[in-house]
Specification:
Elements (H helix, E strand, L loop, with lengths): L1 H19 L2 H39 L1 H16 L8 H14 L3 H18 L8 H12 L6 H9 L9 H31 L2
Helix pairs in contact: 2-7, 3-4, 4-5, 5-6, 6-8
């Protein structure tokens, strides 16, 4: 669906430019945009490689395991339907940890693996289970302690103080995570009441 929206917007822009006699501006925007995108990608790759390296060092040194143990009591309460030793719980913890570090690209593969394991736990049904919905809500809201991607973008665009957004990011993502969890629980308990006929 998203690709159809983008194709429509591009086509509408090109057709409008043709009628307004501004095709030269479209060509200029295409090439300058492509050049800027490549520059931005290289900047983001360097930051991603750095933080993924830090996460790898933390994992090999055992720091990640300690961090996971700290988060495990919270995760067990958030996902009561997932057995503590199930592989899905490990992937969920990795996803949450990557999101906390602002590594959305690193969190995505872990989230996909977690969903696959949760689907297996759900008997292979296509209908989303309660843990799947909770994980999606958490992953979308994603509490972030270090917004590495945004800091990298600000650095690439010459920000005088690229890390000054850390405090506001923590506050904003804490609010979004709290809201996501409240909505998730509200709809879960509402569905539960309907099943019981309240």
């Amino acid at each position: 669906m998203v690709h159809a929206i983008w194709i429509f917007m591009m086509t509408a822009g090109i057709v409008t430019a043709m009628f307004n006699g501004r095709m030269d501006k479209v060509s200029e925007a295409v090439f300058s945009g492509a050049e800027e995108a490549v520059t931005l990608c290289f900047g983001l790759i360097s930051i991603m490689v750095f933080w993924l390296g830090i996460m790898n060092i933390a994992r090999k040194s055992g720091l990640m395991d300690k961090f996971t143990k700290l988060l495990r009591p919270i995760a067990v309460r958030l996902f009561p339907d997932v057995p503590a030793g199930h592989p899905a719980m490990g992937y969920i913890m990795s996803n949450i940890t990557a999101n906390l570090m602002g590594l959305g690209n690193a969190a995505t593969p872990m989230g996909i693996k977690a969903i696959k394991e949760l689907k297996r736990l759900n008997g292979g049904k296509d209908e989303a289970s309660r843990p799947m919905i909770t994980l999606m809500a958490l992953n979308t809201a994603s509490l972030t302690l270090i917004p590495t991607t945004v800091i990298a973008i600000r650095m690439n665009y010459g920000s005088a103080s690229p890390a000054e957004i850390v405090g506001t990011t923590i506050f904003a993502t804490a609010c979004s995570t709290a809201a996501a969890l409240c909505i998730d629980r509200y709809f879960y308990f509402r569905r539960l009441r309907k099943r019981k006929g309240y």
